[in-house]
Amino acid sequence: MAVDDAAISFARDVQPIFNARCVVCHGAVNPLPAGLDLRAGNSYAHLVGRTSTGYAPNLRVSPGDTLASVIYGKITGTNFGEQMPPGFFLIPPSERDRIVAWILAGAPNN
Fold it and tell me: Are 60 and 70 in contact (CB under 8 A)?
């Protein structure tokens, strides 16, 4: 099923992925690496337009540009080091597609 870029919502479509798959390492208790906090209420400000600590001058999320977005390279394993999340807990393609659609839609805070 294709994701409708025009209808993508950060709060409804993207944040739940972070909640389920990322905050165990990127949350209040352990915001590693480099203080990346992906909990609801914090994640958007830590991602969009923010320079990646480990991959500067690249942005964690570059609105409209997946290839320039560190998060895209990390969740797809195509760039910027180890694929995230590590091990056997990779993000399923349908969920990666939602993150990609959100980035391509300009990474709205909605």
Answer: yes
